[in-house]
């Protein structure tokens, strides 16, 4: 059997861990609250349709997304999570010899989907303050650059990009290079100066806005995300999309979620309040916690990361750790966060 060397060189995507019946899973940036009753009811209503393929064009959900964001349905593309839409972007824009630029560290799927798509990943280190280095990213653009991925709030650091700096950055990007603004965590963002992907799209037709139903909407297990872009780019994304990738259950759960956003907003505010409480609690213990606008916080724990992770695990608390960089800690329920703070207190030297 022949195997591609480039595939064997890829680090596997690492799913957040949680071991044991009483484990506190704070490793995957999931919504700690179950789906809304109205969403569950809609899913139950559709259970008898498993024998049929879903709508491949997802026209109904694309129309609802378009109405929600004030665009037209032909500007919307969907996929099995926003990461699948990002994969569509790579496949639609880049090939062998082409380059895809993104900050690093950022969403760990970016280099994987780039390499699998045949393109070359260009990782631009974050600034010391853990923000995107847009000057360095602009300097990295070559005649082979096809796609640039901007993650805001950034996963895993929680830092945001501001409107003025992105405008200045886009002025340095050639019009034929696509810039994807990945806002998977936008619902948790309270930074008034943050860039809006949709606002950028209104002024720059080479911008694509990525969003997901996995985080704030709590549909991570159903897998549905979307992009909003020019109609021409969206058409290309639909052409390269895996047929029937978004299930009927996912599509109708998304429709029900959009119809009950006021209920979801209450849960989002609860998560944001817990984020601020956890941040204050960790800082009071002396931990280096950055400001985050996502549903997680980042601790720059450096060479001590593995030791701290072992202490957390001994308490049944599972975070996402990168040795020797730091720890990304998802925000859970109040009870889960209390256990987390207790575990970190035990890890203080």
Give a summary of the structure in a few sentences.
InterPro entries: Aminotrans_II_pyridoxalP_BS, Aminotransferase_I/II_large, ArAT, HisP_aminotrans, HistidinolP_aminotransfase, PyrdxlP-dep_Trfase, PyrdxlP-dep_Trfase_major, PyrdxlP-dep_Trfase_small. The protein has 349 residues and is of the alpha/beta class. Helices cover 38% and strands 15% of the residues.
Report on this structure.
- The chain is built from 13 helices and twelve strands.
- 38% of the residues lie in helices and 15% in strands.
- With 349 residues, it is of the alpha/beta class.
- A seven-stranded mixed beta sheet has the order 2-8-7-6-5-3-4, with helices on both faces.
- The radius of gyration is 20 Å and the shape is globular.
- It folds into two domains: 106 residues, Aspartate Aminotransferase, domain 1; 222 residues, Aspartate Aminotransferase, domain 2, CATH 3.40.640.
- 45% of the residues are buried.
What's the tally of helices? 13
**What is the count of structural domains?**
2
Q: How many runs of DSSP E, i.e. beta strands?
A: 12
Chain oligomer state: single chain
CATH architecture verdict of the largest domain: 3-Layer(aba) Sandwich
Which regions have little confidence, pLDDT < 50, spanning 5+ residues? Answer: none
**Average pLDDT value?**
96
Helix content: 25-40%
Superfamily (CATH H level) name of the largest domain? Type I PLP-dependent aspartate aminotransferase-like (Major domain)
Biggest sheet details: 7 strands, mixed
Catalytic activity: an aromatic L-alpha-amino acid + 2-oxoglutarate = an aromatic oxo-acid + L-glutamate
Domain Aminotransferase class I/classII large: 22-344
GO molecular function: aromatic-amino-acid transaminase activity; histidinol-phosphate transaminase activity; pyridoxal phosphate binding
Region (Disordered): 1-31
């Amino acid at each position: 059997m022949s195997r591609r060397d480039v595939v064997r060189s890829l680090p596997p995507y690492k799913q957040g861990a949680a071991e044991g019946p009483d484990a506190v899973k704070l490793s995957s940036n999931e919504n700690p609250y179950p789906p809304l009753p109205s969403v569950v009811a809609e899913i139950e209503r559709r259970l008898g349709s498993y024998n049929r393929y879903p709508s491949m064009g997802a026209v109904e959900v694309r129309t609802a997304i378009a109405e929600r964001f004030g665009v037209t349905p032909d500007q919307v593309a969907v996929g099995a999570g926003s990461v699948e839409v990002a994969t569509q972007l790579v496949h639609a824009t880049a090939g062998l010899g082409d380059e895809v630029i993104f900050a690093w560290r950022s969403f760990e799927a970016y280099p994987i989907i780039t390499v699998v798509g045949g393109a070359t990943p260009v990782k631009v280190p974050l600034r010391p303050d853990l923000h995107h280095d847009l000057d360095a990213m602009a300097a990295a653009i070559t005649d082979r650059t096809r796609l640039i991925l901007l993650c805001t709030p950034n996963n895993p650091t929680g830092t945001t990009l501001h409107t003025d700096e992105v405008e200045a950055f886009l002025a340095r990007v050639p019009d034929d290079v696509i810039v994807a603004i990945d806002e998977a965590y936008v619902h948790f963002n309270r930074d008034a100066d943050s860039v809006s992907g949709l606002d950028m799209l209104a002024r720059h037709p080479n911008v694509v806005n990525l969003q997901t139903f996995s985080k704030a909407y709590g549909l991570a297990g159903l897998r549905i995300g979307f992009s909003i872009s020019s109609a021409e780019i969206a058409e290309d994304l639909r052409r390269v999309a895996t047929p029937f990738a978004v299930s009927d259950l996912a599509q109708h759960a998304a429709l029900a979620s959009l119809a009950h956003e006021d209920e979801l907003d209450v849960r989002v505010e609860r998560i944001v309040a817990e984020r601020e409480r956890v941040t204050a609690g960790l800082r009071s213990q002396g931990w280096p916690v950055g400001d985050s606008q996502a549903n997680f916080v980042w601790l720059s724990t450096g060479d001590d990361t593995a030791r701290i992770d072992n202490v957390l695990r001994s308490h049944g608390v599972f975070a996402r750790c990168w040795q020797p960089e730091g720890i990304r800690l998802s925000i859970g329920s109040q009870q889960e966060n209390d256990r987390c703070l207790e575990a970190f207190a035990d890890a203080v030297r």
